[in-house]
Amino acid sequence: MAIPSTPFVFESSVQLAQSVNSLESALTQFGKLATSFETPGANALVSNRGKGFDEWLANELQCYSPLSGDEALLNSTFAELPQFELEPSTGSAGSSLFEHPLSASSPTPSFEGVVAQMPAEPLELTVAKLQRAAALLNVPWSPELEVALRAQTRNLHMVSPREPTPSPSNVARTGQMSKRSHSPETEQPEEILAKRAKNTDAARRSRLKKLVKLDGLQTKVTELTEINQRLNTRVAILETEKNGFLIKEAEQNARIAQLETKIVEAHLALKTRQL
């Protein structure tokens, strides 16, 4: 078996990448078209449940409006058909020919409920579908292309239905019910008496602790007041001693001044005698 050259392998890989991109774009366009055609049909199906064939036909004509190029053809086709008047359905028996048998008794479900009940089915791509899409796009089919496309489809985002969240009213009701279940009215008298005895013992112990603490604080206050009185007397004694020292200092300063004046006078007398 001959081994292909490097340029041929490169060209085949480039062609494979181009074919993968073209198939991806085709699949995305197909998904957009499917979603655009799927939404009005589902709405019409849900809204016309329990109504007659006439209203379903009218809603289908309103949902799928014809294109501008095909209006003449559709008008000519509908002109040849016999005309029937579309009467609104009143919900009573016999209002339409194909009325649902449970429409009078059961309420019509909403579109959100129907969508929530629909199971989320994964996207399945078979080999036949992939080959058909490749043939429509004129892309050569190969096993490598199939592997690449399946790897791309595995990464598609799957939409899961939302779980209903509990409303605040339900939460408040459950809280009130739990409080009522634990109310003291449902307890037995023996348990109530035991709880009361425990509460009285705890209150008595707390009062004793408070009294002991108050006695200790009172003794500490008396000791501190005695110490304060002693310190005040000591301060008074020191103040009197300070005043005595100040008086002695003033007397000594006056004595020093007198001696200085006498020295000055004696010095002047000696000078006069020498002259």
TrEMBL record:
Biased composition (Basic and acidic residues): 192-201
Lineage: Eukaryota, Fungi, Fungi incertae sedis, Mucoromycota, Mortierellomycotina
Record key words, sorted: Coiled coil
Sequence segments annotated as region (Disordered): 159-201
Domain BZIP: 195-241
Record carries keyword Transcription regulation: no
GO molecular function: DNA-binding transcription factor activity
Pfam family, one: bZIP_2
Compositionally biased residues, Polar residues: 168-178
Residue stretches in coiled coil: 214-241
Protein name according to UniProt: BZIP domain-containing protein
